[in-house]
Known about the structure:
Number of helices: 23
Radius of gyration: 36 Å
Strand order of the largest sheet: 10-9-8-11-12-13-18-22-21
CATH topology of the largest domain: Rossmann fold
CATH class of the largest domain: Alpha Beta
CATH superfamily of the largest domain: NAD(P)-binding Rossmann-like Domain
Largest sheet: 9 strands, mixed
Strand content: 5-15%
CATH architecture of the largest domain: 3-Layer(aba) Sandwich
Number of strands: 22
Amino acid sequence: MKKFRKFLLRNRIAPKWALFVLDMTIACFAIIYANYLRFNFDLNLITFDTIIDDVLIVIATNSILFYVFKTYHGIIRFSGFQEAFRSITAVFYSFFIMIVINIVLSSLQFQQFTPISVLFIYFFIASFLLFGYRLLVKHLYSISVNTDENTNVVIYGAGQNSSLLKKTIEQTSNNKFKIVAFVDEEEDLIGKTIDTVKIYPKNHLQIAFKNWQVKTLFFAKQDIDLEEKNKIVDYCLENNVRVMNIPPMREWIQGHLNVNQLKEVKIEELLGRKQISLKNEHVINHLRDKKILITGASGSIGSEIARQIASVYPSSLIICDQTETGLYELEYELHQKFSIGNALKVYLGDVKDESSMRNLFSNYMPEVVFHAAAYKHVPMMENHPSEAIRNNVLGTKMIADLSEEFGVDTMVLVSTDKAINPTNVMGASKRIAEIYCQTLQTREDLPVYDSGIVQMGKNAKRTRFITTRFGNVLGSNGSVIPRFQEQIKNGGPVTVTHPDIIRYFMTIPEACSLVLEAGTIGKGGEVFLFDMGEPVRILDLAKKMIRLAGLTPGKDIELRFTGLRPGEKLFEELLNKEEEVIPTHNKKILIAKVIEYDFAKVSESINTVIQLALENKDEEVVKQMKRIVPEFISNNSIYESIDAKMFKPLYSAIR
């Protein structure tokens, strides 16, 4: 068997001419054998000339038909029903042609070249042999490659197309994968077999792993419960079983599964949650036919908001960012995926530039603004507090003031959980931005604009300023998951700041759904929170990602603790101790009952910190931030000394 296997592997594909000759030899043998069988092997009844005539006619007809049906084009060891059927079809037509020739000869009162009974026998023998030898070669090859080096596989999900799936996986992988069991939770399927492979209940995974030394599990089921999927993945990883996904059949390339489409389960699939059911009709009705502006449009959140809004056909969608390349790529994507046409407007500009932003508002007159432009990296902003204020505070103030001036209906600020009890400059800057938008909503002395664009007074329609707050989003630029993936790919080490650090995670579509929903249901002045579920221990996340890559933490990949970064804390919060929550129509969405501030005092304090930032006085900037946000206590930062020295006299003054 070893010699045969080596022969097959050395001579992987037989030349076309060899298959053609073999098929022709079988057809000739079939007609000769049919003659002898018809006359009970009585050689006195069969002449050599008769045999030669039959063979020549078979060669003539089959040469043409084998060429027409391309019976010799297939790879024999991968032959399936269609391949075999093509060969049988060619033989059938040769049989049919010879029948017609006999009928024509009889009608012309000529002697038939061979009895019709012989032709029937020929057809069945040729069909059996052509079909049979293909299956035999396929079977022998399957036996030859099914060695201890093959990977025994369990497929989770025994649906309608499981038989096709089994054959496709085994053939596509060149029999590297051998399906030994199916697993499913549907009771009607349990105990039955698919192509001789038994279907087991999900609680029998342990038996399957033990009996067949399973090395890989494929998820073929697309709608598996997330909690259940996590349990199965954890069990597989504990038993050193690799976990992979099979794409749905609609994604197979021209109906065929490519081995490159078999992908490892991604950590994002296991951290996400069931998609929250938002009132999408309300969102659609609110945004359709509106002029909508998105700042920071090329970022993770901004670009997803743009995609979701593009699908509801606004009258115009204005995407604004200071990043040229990101904006260009988003423009291209939106035109490719959505029929948005001239409704898409692209504006390259900086939210800190008043002249540029005023030009944006005056030209496009947006009715709804989603403000997602911000600096978000904690260590970077800890080293550049003036820049954090210029972008996150001045930029927000600029957009908010222009929204009010130009009569925007709704402005939604995208904020972060790091704004709560901030321990870093980035979080504090976002909290200041929140406070400014809140005070714009609650102030009583509304300005009157006499620019001719909009007139406002006490009874005028007010812009609704709404804030959304959430935690880390999966797959965002610079997030921990892409960093871990890169470190694992490079062979480690995987760096974790602290063994006890935890974070909340959500998907980008979920985050953006919250933003859109908030802009729809908000009355103005609210801070919307999102039920983030259970927090994730980053160390456990790193270990799981290493195991998903088929490696062992601490053995194949080193885990290294680097210490908390400047401004970083062990856990994030969604509320500070002085805030309460109010439920909404959706139990996953809450409203924070926030502290009210005096606009005049807040505005004066914010103008001061902006001026200090424009002068690049970093230490004074941080001091002023702590005056505006007294709960801002620096952690693992050079600014911790400020907390020890400062007395916070403005704590009660600005409230």
